[in-house]
Amino acid sequence: MDLGFSNTIIAFGITLLAGLATGIGSLLAFYTKRTNEKFLAATLGFSAGVMIYVSLVEIFAEAKSSLIEELGAKKGYWVCVISFFAGIALIALIDKLVPQKENPHEMRDVNEMDKKVDNDSLLRMGLFSALAIAIHNFPEGIATFMSAIQDPKLGISIAVAVAIHNIPEGIAVSIPVYYATGNRKKAFMYSFLSGLSEPLGAIVGFILLRRFISPSLFGIIFASVAGIMVYISLDELMPTAEKYGHHHISIYGLIAGMAVMALSLLMFA
To answer: What helix, strand, coil percent values describe the chain, rounded to 5?
Structure first.
């Protein structure tokens, strides 16, 4: 499969922008006195809706079609399903290995800036959150990149969803570092750097897979990507939206995300 230089550059640019959204979260933490919880719940739900719909309707279907064409109906379907759950297992394992206190899925609200905690503990929390987010974002970078390199329009949709969920992750890093050090620049830097693991994941994935890419391998990667994105949506995005106490708003966001994704796919079909 010919990846093409221009497609590669576009895919990398899309992945880079998605990763750097952690910096937006950091800026929000510094320059807003209170998180707009309804908006955050809605956007996180929207991101989950985009991810779930595109994963199960578009990405999984494309992976299945590619694998069946290469391996036959029964074997191709089996490989697709196994790859889907392998993606879930991979991201779940990464999640399991991260200590709960430093887990980026345990989001922090901007209001937590007012809480007085030991500075050393805060700094450790912030640094480990940055590391944990970097680890989590690595496979997301590969997912965004591989989707964008196959179909830039699809890649942009996924990147938008990833970027939205990176914003509260940026808050999770910057809050403890800022209150431990009093240094906005340092807090922003750690938040910003944690997002760079997504384009790094894209680069590593490209280097490792470039020579071996084929319709079969592409199908396996796409099915795994679908699994990763469904897990992130169910384990991270929706619980975080619920954390802000607006159940129905997050569900409305979820449905809106699915509807917008469906409409965009219909318009460009």
So the answer is: 85, 0, 15
* Both tokens assigned to 236: 């991270």
Contact 175, 110 (CB under 8 A): yes
Question: Which amino acid is it at 56?
Answer: L
Q: Give, for 41, the enclosing helix (H) or strand (E).
A: helix 37-53
What do you get for the CA distance between the two ends of the chain, in Å?
A: 22
Global pTM reads 0.66
Check whether 267 has a pLDDT greater than 90.
no
Query: pLDDT digit string (tens) for 110-154?
Result: 454 444 445 566 666 667 667 666 766 777 787 788 778 777 777
- Reported as half-sphere exposure (CB side, CA atoms, 13 A), residue 52 has a value of 21
Break the chain into its structural domains and give their ranges: 5-267
Tell me how far apart the alpha carbons of residues 138 and 146 are, in angstroms, rounded to a whole number. 13
